[in-house]
Amino acid sequence: NAGVTQTPKFRVLKTGQSMTLLCAQDMNHEYMYWYRQDPGMGLRLIHYSVGEGTTAKGEVPDGYNVSRLKKQNFLLGLESAAPSQTSVYFCASSLGLGGQYFGPGTRLTVL
Amino acid sequence: RKEVEQDPGPFNVPEGATVAFNCTYSNSASQSFFWYRQDCRKEPKLLMSVYSSGNEDGRFTAQLNRASQYISLLIRDSKLSDSATYLCVVTRPTDSWGKLQFGAGTQVVVTP
Q1: Within an 8 Å CB–CB cutoff, is residue B33 touching chain A?
Q2: Residue of B33, B100, B102 to mutate, interface with A, max A Cβ within 10 Å
Q3: Across the A/B interface, how many CB contacts are shorter than 8 Å?
Q4: What CA–CA distance (Å, rounded) separates B105 from B15?
Q5: What is the pLDDT of residues A24-83, one digit of tens each?
Q6: pLDDT given for residue B93 in this prediction
Q7: Sign of CA dihedral A65, B42, B109, B59
Q8: Contacts with A, B 65-94, CB within 8 Å
Q9: ∠ CA(B67), CA(B102), CA(A20), 5° rounding?
């Protein structure tokens, strides 16, 4: 039982490049979330999903897209990376109200 | 004003001492409250939920004060391993699917 996993762990991009972050959970959770964490700020919700095939915008969705084609996977895409997207990205999952389980994070630097 | 505010610290605590800190939230209709712990460069992990009557989990005690809109965390008999950033988390009343609002965290450093 791996919980929530994220790939890659680290990535450096140049401005304008694209990439996809993968999140996988093996707990059969319905809800999945993507957050970013920046120094001095709390985690901010980018996008979330309440079930397979559904996605919705969170607090800071601009510049990101997501897909939830399978219940266990939640993908976060950056179509044209910008330096402002340099951050640590965390994926999380939950059964609903209550605690969320987080993945180990992806450290992204955009030059 | 941020929805969830915390003193960033650091709170420097001698090993074995007690430390307590608060978190304030702006939405009086917030329904659920949690404390998460985050170690340096690691993911947040759920420490405990906070119930209306207050609750305890070992050396950790959480309290909720709805009138003044704050929650607190008290750590007794601090251990070196308690050094971490503690994140205050609340849910909005309309978010039935578990959306969380995170504070920026309070750093606790336990010293020998």
Answers
A1: no
A2: B100
A3: 56
A4: 21
A5: 999 999 999 999 999 878 899 999 999 999 999 998 999 999 999 999 999 999 999 999
A6: 65
A7: positive
A8: 87, 91
A9: 160
